[in-house]
Structures are given as C-alpha cells and as structure tokens.
Design a protein that fits this description.
Blueprint (H helix, E strand, L loop, with lengths): L1 E5 L6 H7 L8 H10 L4 E9 L5 E12 L12 H11 L3 E6 L10 E3 L6 H12 L8 E7 L5 H6 L3 E2 L3 E7 L7 H6 L3 H13 L4 E5 L1 H6 L1 H12 L11 H11 L3 E8 L2 E10 L4 E8 L1 H7 L1 H16 L3 E5 L3 H6 L3 E11 L2 H18 L13
Parallel strand pairs: 4-6, 12-13
Antiparallel strand pairs: 1-2, 2-3, 3-4, 3-5, 6-14, 7-14, 8-13, 8-14, 9-10, 10-11, 11-12
C-alpha cells in the first residue's frame, strides 16, 4: 500500500473524479471552488491511496487551517495568567488539519473501496502522511464520520470522540406544493407568527443577484457577512466575496444569492445551494439594526423554505447555528460524529476553553418545540 500527496485538485481532477460516484460531494468541481476562493489561512492536501498493483483504492481530502485570533472570541478568559499564555501562544497560532470540508454539512473527507482496503489500512497510511507535515498539526479532526462501526479503529490511532455536532434540517412534505400548504400544517400561534414576520419585511425587497451584481456589491456583502460571523464564538474558516463569486461561476443557477434591499441599500443576503434532492441555506449576512424592525433573519429562513418547496426539494438544510430559531419553523437536529487528536497540554487547554465557550453559547439551543399540528 502507498499514498501520493497533492496540493491542488487540478493536478489529479480526472483520476480523482473517476474514482468517486456520480454526484459525490468530493468531486473536483466542489473542491476547486475553495481553491479559487483563495481563503486566507487555508490550504489543502489531497491523498490518493493505491494498492500493490497501483490501483486507486481510496481518496482523502484535507483542509489545513492556520488558526489565529480572528477565528474565535479572543481572549478566552479573564484570568491574567491564562490570558498571558493565550496571548503568547496565539502570536503564532495553531495548525489544524481537518479531514473533511468545514464549509459544508455532512462532508466527510474519506471515500474508499471497502473490498480493496480497510479503514485500519487507511489510517496506517494517514499516520505516515501526518509525519510529513511541517510543523506537525496541533490538532487533527476527522469530520462528519458516518462509519461508527469503525470507531474502535480511530481510537487505536489516539483519536477521541469530539463533542456531538449537529445540523438543523426540515423534511419537506410531498403535499406542500407552495408555502401556503406549509402554513396550513402549523399550529395556530406558529401560523400567526409566520404571517406577522412576513408582513414586517415591507418595504424591503428581495431579489436574486447575478455574478455582476455580486461583484459590484462585494464590499457590502463582506460587511454583512462579517456581522454574522463575528457573533459566533468559533469561526474556523472566514470567507470573503471571492468565495461567493466563485460559487456563482461554478454552480450557476444551482447557487442562489438573494439580496435584501431597503431604499436600494443592501441590508441582508442569503446564499443557497440547490442540490439534486435538497436545498441548502448556506452563508448569510445581516444588518442587525434593520433585522430588529424587519425580522430579516426569520424572513431569510422562510424564503429558503418557500424556494425549496417551489424547487421540489425533499429537504431543507439550515446549518448548525441559531438552532432554537430554526426549530420554530419546524427543523430538527441531525447529529454527526467527529473525532479529534490533540498535541500537547497547551493545545488541550485552549481547546477546552474554546469548547466551554461554545457549549455555554449553545447550551439551550435545542428545545422541544411542536410547530406542526400533527406533532
């Protein structure tokens, strides 16, 4: 068994794609978008594993992140001594290696032919790969791992289960032909809430943005996006307008950028990915002052729902954040398994503080809500 390392998907796109099933999330067209976006502090590694007959048996996708102050709420603590330690450590930052795609939901980074290679053999080869990285990563994360029957193998390689991750999804009934059909299934107070929130949007106008408009509004888009991102306790990857432009160029009509305008001024946006069988509400941006009076965020959620129903999607993917808000419209949590390996006591301390901050912010995020009449 051997592996080959590549720094760009363009070097291997043809053979890489030929190994993957049709429509797979690791196809080169999806990964090339991220390379083209030139996201700060982010680079990539692509591994191809071959058997003794030089036959491709596995592909692995990695994102290498230089984690610095901008990626979280600095400082983590008011303790003077710990604060000084954090300040000193974060001058250089951390190297975090992620197997998977942090910009997408349910995007594990390993695909293999189970008849020709085992997970044990895969992780043996990955151990050799990790040793080639200079500096050695402070943390290695295996993201969105679905093959829980192989958890014991991960533990053999010193990976431990990370805090449960989740995304919020709404199953779309086949009986919903338009948004009014959805509203009819709601309990009275949730239906009232829907109508009130929709009425609040006036006179804000929502419209699809084409590539030229995204380019012309890039400063406003970045400002509104950072408004949202900077409210998150951890933001592992921070994109800019180049990312949204790259997505539009690569996906065309399957990437919907919707701008919300008040007196011709952009006050919010949503980005949406139209997959084969589901609709994904991707990144958003908000003017929070306007949000207070126009309920922009709720209207973005409802617009995504309306568009997904019109598209004939079977599911609406709403992402990880603002979980309680998404439960109000009917979404439910779907959990994923992540595994992490940490290097050194200082790394463990910083990660524990980050974890505490995240859990505190999201401790009451998932509640028992029953917006539908038949629930």
């Amino acid at each position: 068994m051997q592996y080959k390392i590549y720094n760009s998907i363009t070097e291997i796109a043809t053979c890489w794609d030929s190994f993957l099933p049709t429509g797979h999330h690791l196809k080169s067209q999806h990964l090339l978008v991220l390379e083209e976006s030139q996201i700060p502090n982010l680079s990539f590694r692509y591994l191809i594993l071959e058997n003794a007959s030089n036959e491709m048996v596995c592909v692995c996708y990695f994102q290498l992140i230089h984690f610095i102050k901008e990626h979280y709420d600095f400082p983590l603590t008011k303790n003077h001594l710990l604060n000084r330690l954090e300040e000193r450590v974060m001058k250089k930052g951390f190297q975090i290696l992620v197997c998977g795609n942090l910009l997408r939901i349910s995007s594990e980074g390993i695909f293999f032919d189970s008849e020709k290679i085992s997970p044990q053999e895969i992780f043996e080869q990955l151990e050799k790969f990790y040793g080639t990285l200079k500096p050695y990563p402070h943390a290695i994360l295996v993201k969105d791992w679905k093959l829980n029957q192989y958890e014991s193998i991960l533990k053999k390689f010193q990976f431990q289960s990370w805090q449960p991750d989740l995304t919020m999804k709404l199953k779309l009934s086949s009986e919903w032909r338009r948004i009014d059909d959805y509203v009819k299934t709601l309990r009275h107070r949730y239906a009232q809430r829907y109508r009130r929130i929709r009425s609040m949007l006036f006179p804000v106008v929502a419209r699809d943005l084409d590539e030229d408009e995204i380019s012309g509004l890039k400063s406003e888009i970045e400002f509104l996006y950072l408004n949202v991102v900077n409210r998150q306790p951890i933001r592992m990857i921070i994109v800019d307008a180049k990312y949204f432009l790259s997505m539009k160029r690569r996906y065309g009509e399957n990437f919907k950028m919707i701008g919300y305008f008040l007196d011709e001024r952009l006050v919010g946006f949503s980005s949406n990915i139209v997959h084969r069988d589901f609709w994904e509400l991707h990144y958003i941006g908000l003017d929070y002052k306007i949000n207070q009076t126009k309920s922009l965020y709720f209207n973005i959620l409802y617009d995504a729902l309306q568009n997904s129903i019109a598209n004939g999607s079977t599911e609406l993917e709403l992402g990880r954040t603002a979980r309680a808000t998404k439960q109000i419209i009917g979404a439910s949590p779907v959990y994923f398994s992540n595994y992490v390996r940490l290097k050194g006591k200082v790394t463990r301390l910083i990660v524990q503080l980050l974890s505490n901050r995240f859990n505190k912010r999201n401790s009451s995020a998932v509640m028992e809500l029953r917006p539908f009449r038949n629930s």
